[in-house]
Amino acid sequence: WVYAGVEDAALFLSKDGGQNWQELAGLREVKGHLWQPGAGGLCLHTILLDRINPNRIYVAISAAGSFRSDDGGITWVPINKGLASPDELPDPDAEVGHCIHSLARHPSRPDVLFMQKHWDVMRSDDAGNTWREISGNLPSDFGFPIAVHAHEPETVYVVPIKSDSEHFPPEGKLRVYRSRNGGDRWEALTNGLPQKDCYVNVLRNALTVDEMDSCGIYLGTSGGQVYVSADSGDHWMTAAQNLPPVLSVEVQTLP
Model confidence at 253, in pLDDT bands (50, 70, 90)? Predict the structure, then answer.
């Protein structure tokens, strides 16, 4: 089966390898008339499938929120409780309307979700029913991507950006931040990354991990650079330069 998110936000499913598609229209029934586009459009950008419970699906939409299905996509519930957005929404507890930038979780713990939101890094331990902020000591809680270590479910990575109007790293220093305790404390990973005059962005799909024993980390920038760490982020090297803006980075571990 193949799932595809589109803009304007909708979710489609193909059961024959992409030859034919059908919309999982129940998603739009969750107050879809109230969804509004963010600066990047009304995009369903994240789809997470539960390897343990194949009927459970998570999606995220900018700027509608995050949603969960427990019956294979037939019906959906909003999972946005605790995502206060007072600057964007008149009602900070609104069920929909939240600008989610990215969702991530470890396959072994599908009920534990991590979120990079339009302001705030968040965590849920109950499949999205409730959320709490884990921005902690980050220099900025604004950013686009979030990723989880392949073998350490409590190790999380984000790339802070200065603000929603200034899409570059704070102080012009490209730093990936890692938390080894699920977001309670963050450390800057800088070895091999440019630490001056760096004014690039890292978009939501341009940070990913592989499944090697050491867990490689990969990120691409709006400046056309690709950086790679072969040791969980401790050291970085440049893998490519002068590419067009990198929108997405994907890796495949060969058998």
Answer: low
Q: d(Cα 10, Cα 79) in Å, to the nearest integer?
A: 17
- Name which of 153, 130, 143 is nearest 175 in CA terms: 143
Concatenated DSSP letters for 161-208? ES-SS--S-GGG---EEEESSTTSS-EEE-TTS--SS------TBSEE
Residues in CB range of 60: below 8 A, 6 or more apart = 44, 45, 46, 66, 67, 100, 101, 102, 103, 115
Per-residue pLDDT tens digits for 197-226: 999 999 999 999 999 999 999 999 999 999
Q: Give the pLDDT confidence of 165-177 residue by residue, as tens digits.
A: 999 999 999 999 9
The CA distance from 246 to 43, in Å, is 18
The Cα 66–Cα 58 span in angstroms is 7
Q: CB under 8 Å to 254, separation ≥6 — which residues?
A: none
